[in-house]
Amino acid sequence: MKSLICLLALAVALAMPCLAGTTVDSETITVRARIETISPSLNITINEVKGDNWTTRNSVDFGNLVFDGNYDVWRAESYYAVDVGVSGNVDDWTITHTASPVTGPGGDLDENINVTFIQQVTDLVGIDLDYVSYLASDGKSYTKDDLFGGWLRIYYGIAGGEDDAPGVEPIGADATPGTYVGTVTLTLTEN
């Protein structure tokens, strides 16, 4: 009886590999997906800011300035925030800010406008990059690395006489009346 149990145990042990199956063939299948390059493009939103109210606009238009007789200067009732986002999946790009003079009957207002460049991380959190005059803003540029984790926000504001950027002064009482116009061109280049 003991030998019969041993023979049965041996038979089961020898049969086990047969029960598991024998590989007779295999093939490898390739799985692939290709993501195409999306050329970068600018997404720009212009907001007029009055106190806590932000209103989307089509341009930076300070409108009729208000004369402040206490300080003998012209002031704006609002300032502007321009959000500049980049869509696309290229490795490296640069945004360049080109400012043409804001000119009118009395010359230009290029040293009467503050321009602030911010790396905006959230709607409420940003990191200052540059705070300059409109004149000095011409040619400023920022790369994808400079703005990593956020987007570019540019503030434009008429000088107020306090905390203005270096070289920026308020528009004095003797400013020549008339309309003053300039342009800003934001250019995106792939590096």
Please describe the topology of this protein.
Elements: H1 2-20, E1 41-50, E2 53-57, E3 66-68, E4 73-75, E5 79-87, E6 93-99, E7 103-104, E8 107-108, E9 113-120, E10 126-133, H2 134-137, E11 140-143, E12 151-158, E13 171-172, E14 184-190
Antiparallel strand pairs: 1-2, 1-5, 3-4, 4-13, 5-12, 6-11, 6-14, 7-8, 9-10, 9-12
Please describe what this structure looks like.
With 191 residues, this protein is mostly beta strands. The protein has helices at residues 2-20, 134-137; strands at 41-50, 53-57, 66-68, 73-75, 79-87, 93-99, 103-104, 107-108, 113-120, 126-133, 140-143, 151-158, 171-172, 184-190. The termini are far apart. The mean pLDDT is 91.
N-to-C span: 86 Å
Order of helices and strands: HEEEEEEEEEEHEEEE
Report the major sheet. 6 strands, antiparallel
Specify the CATH architecture: Sandwich
CATH uppermost class: Mainly Beta
Number of strands: 14
What do the pLDDT scores average to?
A: 91
Strand order of the largest sheet: 2-1-5-12-9-10
Structural class by helix and strand composition: mainly beta
CATH-derived topology: Jelly Rolls
Spans of at least 5 consecutive residues whose pLDDT stays below 50 are: none
Helix fraction bin: 10-25%
Proportion of beta-strand residues: 35-45%
**How many helix segments?**
2
Number of domains: 1
Gyration radius (Cα, Å) is 33 Å
User: What would you call the shape?
Assistant: elongated
